[in-house]
Amino acid sequence: MDLCRTLGRTFVLLMLLWFISTSVALAEDESAKSPGVLERIGNTAQKVGNKIEQGFTKAGTKLKEKKVGEKIEQKLKKAANKTAEGFKKAGNKIDQKLNH
């Protein structure tokens, strides 16, 4: 859920940065010393890409630190054991009713 929220925020931020950079680029007079519009947009896109990569790296690190995979495995094993116990009890009750 947090990963989806992060991706959504990143997308909105990317669109906002693109809009702002495009607006600023069109509003300014281009001079020979300043970088061109396409270069500024490219630089901005590269920065945003780096931030997205950092976000995914952080999310991956957090998942590893919290040992999410191991916790899910434990919960599935517990659920399987409970289900097996439930079927065993139901089988015993059926056997008792059929034999009596």
How many strands, what sense, and barrel or not for the largest sheet?
none
Separation of the first and last Cα atoms: 53 Å
Number of helices: 3
What sort of overall outline do the alpha carbons produce when their principal axes are compared? rod-shaped
Percentage of β-strand residues: under 5%
Low-confidence stretches: none
Mean pLDDT, all residues: 80
**Overall helicity:** over 70%
Strand tally: 0
What structural class is derived from the secondary structure elements? Answer: mainly alpha
Question: Radius of gyration, Cα only, in angstroms?
Answer: 28 Å
The string of secondary-structure elements, in order, is HHH
Describe the structure.
With 100 residues, the chain is an all-alpha fold. The chain is built from three helices and no strands. Helix 1 (2-27) packs antiparallel against helix 2 (37-65). The longest helix is centred in the last third of the chain and has 32 residues, at 68-99. The radius of gyration is 28 Å and the shape is rod-shaped. The model has no long low-confidence stretch (mean pLDDT 80).
Outline the secondary-structure elements.
Layout: H1 2-27, H2 37-65, H3 68-99
Helix pairs in contact: 1-2
Can you summarize this structure?
The chain has 100 residues and is mainly α.
Characteristic terms for this protein:
mainly alpha; 3 helices; 100 residues; rod-shaped
